[in-house]
Design brief:
The chain is mainly α and 90 residues long. It has five helices and no strands. The radius of gyration is 14 Å and the shape is globular. The N and C termini lie far apart (29 Å). Helix 1 crosses helix 3 and helix 3 packs across helix 5.
């Protein structure tokens, strides 16, 4: 859970990611981006995703992720739109 911990504490900086993965950390950028989107979606209480997030985040010192970038905001909007479309089917 090291990537998630860095993200939820707002410490997912290039310097810290390089410390975790080494100087070629950009190879892991897809995993970092995927995890940031998962965190920034902030699943609603009672959902399976919320339960999983609570388990993964247990014991973390704080929950202060960095604000989403413009690209992340666009991706979050797309995901939320898909969630709204699929919700009646579930």
């Amino acid at each position: 859970y090291p990537i998630r911990r860095l993200i939820i504490t707002g410490e997912d900086t290039p310097v810290n990611l390089a410390l975790l993965f080494g100087p070629l950390w950009e190879k892991e950028s897809a995993a970092v981006r995927k995890t940031r989107i998962e965190v920034l979606l902030c699943p609603p209480p009672g959902s399976p995703s919320h339960t999983a997030a609570q388990y993964l985040d247990e014991g973390s010192p704080r929950w202060t992720p960095r604000a989403p970038s413009a690209d992340e905001q666009a991706e979050l909007a797309q995901v939320r739109e898909m969630q709204e479309l699929l919700a009646p089917l579930l």
